Amino acid sequence: MPEAPKELVPAKVNAKALFLVGTTAWLIALLTLGVMHLAERSPDGRYAWVAVAGIALGAAGYWWAHRVHLIDDQGMSE
């Protein structure tokens, strides 16, 4: 009879770095869209709002993780 699969344990991630990298990626996307707009090659304006939403949600997630103490002093999730 085969062995039962072992239960997976949650990965420990650096939540602080994860939020910062994600928010930075959205900021770069917004800056890229701004440069495209200045070069008169602007795509649909809704893309900029998506990037703004990503920045706002990333900042809110960063604040929330610290507020409810989901990360320790080194930024690792608990």
Textual characterization of the structure:
- By secondary structure, this protein is mainly alpha-helical.
- Helices cover 59% and strands 0% of the residues.
- α1 runs antiparallel to α2 (46-67).
- The relative contact order is 0.19.
How would you summarize what this structure contains?
The two termini are 36 Å apart. The chain has a domain at 15-67. It has helices at residues 15-38, 46-67.
Topology pattern, helix = H, strand = E: HH
The helix content is: 55-70%
The rough form would be described as: elongated
Rg calculated over all Cα atoms: 19 Å
Q: What distance separates the N and C termini?
A: 36 Å
Low-confidence stretches: none
Q: Mean of the pLDDT scores?
A: 84
Number of DSSP-assigned strands: 0
Helical run tally: 2
Q: What share of the residues does DSSP label as strand, in percent?
A: under 5%
Structural class call reads mainly alpha
**Biggest sheet details:** none
Keywords: Membrane, Transmembrane, Transmembrane helix
Organism: Ruania alkalisoli
Transmembrane segments: 17-35, 47-65
Protein name: DUF2530 domain-containing protein
Topology:
Blueprint: H1 15-38, H2 46-67
Helix pairs in contact: 1-2
Any descriptors?
mainly alpha; membrane; 78 residues; DUF2530 domain-containing protein; elongated; 2 helices
